[in-house]
Amino acid sequence: MKRTALILIDVQQGFDHPKWGIRNNPDAERNIARLLARWRTLSLPIIHIQHLSATANSPLAPDQPGCDFKPEAQPIDGEPVFGKQVNSAFIGTGLDQFLKEHGIHNLIIAGFTTDHCVSTTTRMAGNLGYGTILVSDATATFNRRGLDGVNISADAIHNVHLASLDGEFCKVRGTDEILTDFT
What we know:
The protein is α/β, with parallel strands linked by helices. The chain has helices at 28-41, 95-101, 114-127, 154-165, 175-181; strands spanning 4-9, 46-51, 81-84, 106-112, 131-140, 144-145, 151-152, 171-173. It is globular and about 45 Å long. This is Isochorismatase.
């Protein structure tokens, strides 16, 4: 268990901005908070990833209030924070080196958004050889307009990404399953 880190990706206030559209899974933050509380209780490694957008008017730009972490996922002393400017938490951050230096071989991933940074980081984690679990109900995404102009629901996008990741790059499990395993 000591070698299993909880990685929270982009749990930032900027994802509450209306520009993103309609979101699925309104319980994601509650489940993230439950995971975080358990990891802290068990003194297991916790790593926060923060998107630092290079786009000046982005809600996730460093000078915007949306760059701040949500209250449910505020880092505390001793919990490393890695800032990134691309979708993968492994590119340009030193995350892989940190995990190797600390003997961490297994990852539990949660955060925002399912089809962008969460998916990209999960894929890379699997490719780098980490035992990876993606928490299905502790991540969420937003609706999008398809190339044909048809709206694609956030639930559909979320479910397709979970299905394509499961068994190939990670195991997809729910918060309750994980909390049962980490008691």
